[in-house]
Amino acid sequence: MLISKKLKLMAGILAFACMIAIGSAQAEVVQVEFLHAMSGSKLAVTSGIVKSFNETHPGINVNLVYGGSYAETTTKAISRSASGNAPNIAQVEAAFNRDLIDSGKIVPVYKLFAPHTKIAFNWDSLIDPIRSYYAIDGKMWSIPFNSSTGMLYYNKNMFKAAGLDPNNPPRTFKELEEAARKALAAGVCKMGITTSWPAWIMLENMIPYNGQWFANNDNGHSAPPTEVYLTGDFVMDLMRYLSRWSKDGLFTYLGREYKALPAFATGKSLFLFLSTSTLKSITKKANFDVGTAFLPRIEGYPSGRSTIGGATLYVFKGFSDKENEATATFLKYITEPTTTIKWHKGTGYFPLTNGALESLHHEGWFAEDSNYLTALLELLTSPKIPQASSPFLGNFVQIRDILDSYIEEVVTLKLTPEKAMKKAKEEVEKVLADYAKLVN
Amino acid sequence: MKVKNRQPLSRHDTRGVVFPQHKILPFFLILGPVAIVVLFFIYPTLSSLRLSLFTVGRFGQEVWIGLDNFASIFLESKYRSSLLLSILFSSAVTLIGLFLSLGIATLLTQRLKGIGVFRVFLTWTYAISPAIMATIWLLFMDPATGLLPYVVKEVTGLQVHWTASSIVAFVVIILTAIWARLGYNTLFFLIALRRVSEELIDAANIDGASTWTTFWKIKFPLISPVTFFLLIMNTLFSLYWVFPIIDIMTHGGPGRSTSLLIYTLFIEGFRNGRAGLASALSIVIFSFVAIITIVQFKLAGKKVFYQ
């Protein structure tokens, strides 16, 4: 009796194991893990893209895994690859390029396409400012997924109410200040000037936009950077503007990342420094006329180009040729006109290719809502200067945090601009030195 | 209670042995829990102690630096201010929090109709995690769309932007932390107060003691074990569990004004990848907690009455 019971049990386990083996043999679908940082409405559009890819490519299954904020996702991707468990694709913010590339754990994407493999890719189809931002020695090491640049949002209704011309937004910091003063004095808004992503807007965007270098050694491209130019005339002028505006109540600091967005979208603030990435969701939320403008310049400085924000997709080492082929297929899909047009329309991020841009123009998309054209024009009309190259600094997660906290010290009037930037420079340069020690 | 002259266990004496027939089974059974304790508590602690003496790179590279990490913590203003803020924060949250919840608990002991409803409402925040608490307060306090700034503006005309003021931000996280523990503290105090014998209170009343005297001279000393327990738990909470409140509400800002030790630890360890410094920070926090606990135990020896 006992023996037969044991036999029955063993037979059952064997049958079960066979079923699983057969089951998994039939499901010969290549799995691609895509670690991303998209949330809110952007997540919906991303999921839509992944879903339609999976449906049209039955042999591949792309899994979306949420990694948190950009900093969290980058950190996760790096630590997972350090422990041998990297995702196939990770969405990494542009500024963290150096950390990823120096790690030696990624496969540069140009190696996933012809002539290294059989999959063709037309690199010239990518919009030039975006392509040149990410290219290293002319070759692409990642595929830019969501690219944006900084721009100024303003409330057209408040402009009208304050007696300002809603079709003539400020182009310089001086004009911005005058407009804010007028509107606040007229009582049409609760807050004047606000900003999101303080360091990204005020330093990473403004510095190249006004033709200045961010770091030495060509922003870190010709040799590892050792100095950041935070105490030069330009940054000092900018910080003094912010400090004075905070003191006079023209500028209200609402927090890092997107924390300042609700104040603008609910019609409480007049100006918001942000990027083109959330244009769609702001336009949807706002019950007023949303105006967009190029970033204002500071008078007396040369013209430059704002930085490319958003994130790019890196591919990690450690996968089979078949998996890399699947990954490459997905990356190519993202840049196809229908996909990138869907992405642009759903979020406001730039369409990736010239072809897509052309299609959007012909179908009259920009005529419908010219706000979608603002950031593109801002980028395409800017001179291609060497100072606009991406800051190629290691440990950028830490550096961005230092920059954010010292900007906060300035706008909360705890430190003078001079003291704050001096301390920020010291701390950032120490981080750069530590990074150089560890990498060498 | 010691049993004197207890005979040693002979092979046939199975007093206090659960599985007398099996010699090895007991050890096998405790292997699981012991493995978990070693893997998740002992090994990481020893590892932390070791790593605190190194500079550790993101990809695991280690460089020996001796006590330099600890030197940085006590000498660099960034970390020293973290330490001081944590001390200030912990004291405020513990003392104000316990004082408030004792008051509320006392009010809840009254025999009024419907007091049960209040008891439930004032203690059920016990079940909410700090992260959710922080999110609620973040929305509640949002300068543009939050209810609290709106009410403050209507009542006092002051537009308080806590995101732009270091002091207000610090006060805000203290208030959030106090509120987060209010339910827990009130619950324990409530139970302790209700266990105070009615006879003692009646005797005091007969002798003409006022409510104030009754409270401080009779109730308070009798609930001292719970007070002592809550003092330690709140200190621990304000040094460790308060992390989500900072991470969700202020990210340590503005500037560094709300960067408590535990948040600095997270940023250095998990964002900046500096495992060596983070290990040193965790040892500092632990020592800090150990010192406070020892001090409290010493004081308790004199002030806590166990019935």
Can you characterise this structure?
The complex is a heterodimer of chains A (440) and B (307). With 440 residues, chain A is of the alpha/beta class. In chain A, 50% of the residues lie in helices and 14% in strands. Chain A has helices at residues 2-26, 40-56, 70-82, 97-103, 128-134, 156-161, 173-185, 198-209, 216-220, 233-247, 261-265, 279-285, 321-334, 337-347, 354-362, 365-368, 371-380, 396-411, 417-439; strands at residues 30-36, 60-66, 89-93, 106-107, 135-136, 139-140, 143-148, 150-155, 191-195, 269-275, 290-293, 309-316. In chain A, strands 1, 2, 3, 4, 7 and 12 form a 6-stranded mixed β-sheet that branches. In chain A, strands 9-10-8-11 form a 4-stranded mixed β-sheet, sandwiched between helices. The termini of chain A are far apart. Chain B is mainly alpha-helical. At the A-B interface, helix 3, helix 18 and helix 19 of A face helix 12 of B.
Fold blueprint:
The complex is a heterodimer of chains A (440) and B (307).
Chain A: H1 2-26, E1 30-36, H2 40-56, E2 60-66, H3 70-82, E3 89-93, H4 97-103, E4 106-107, H5 128-134, E5 135-136, E6 139-140, E7 143-148, E8 150-155, H6 156-161, H7 173-185, E9 191-195, H8 198-209, H9 216-220, H10 233-247, H11 261-265, E10 269-275, H12 279-285, E11 290-293, E12 309-316, H13 321-334, H14 337-347, H15 354-362, H16 365-368, H17 371-380, H18 396-411, H19 417-439
Helix pairs in contact in A: 2-14, 8-18, 14-15, 18-19
Chain B: H1 25-51, E1 54-56, E2 62-64, H2 68-75, H3 77-108, H4 115-123, H5 130-141, H6 147-156, H7 166-194, H8 198-206, H9 211-222, H10 224-241, H11 243-249, H12 261-271, H13 275-303
Antiparallel strand pairs in B: 1-2
Helix pairs in contact in B: 1-13, 2-3, 3-7, 3-10, 5-11, 7-10, 8-9, 10-13, 12-13
Assembly category: heterodimer
Strands of chain A, count: 12
- The beta-strand count of chain B equals 2
What is the overall shape of chain A? globular
Which segments of chain A are poorly predicted (pLDDT under 50) over 5 or more consecutive residues? none
Q: Major sheet of chain A: size, sense and barrel closure?
A: 6 strands, mixed
| Helicity level of chain A | 40-55%
- Proportion in β-strands of chain A: 5-15%
Structure classification of chain B:
mainly alpha
Gross morphology of chain B? flat
In whole angstroms, the N-to-C terminal distance of chain B is 18 Å
**What structural class is derived from the secondary structure elements of chain A?**
alpha/beta
Rg value of chain B: 25 Å
Mean pLDDT of chain B: 85
Q: Specify the number of helices of chain A.
A: 19
Order of helices and strands of chain B: HEEHHHHHHHHHHHH
The greatest interface here is: A-B, 38 and 30 residues
Distance between the termini of chain A: 70 Å
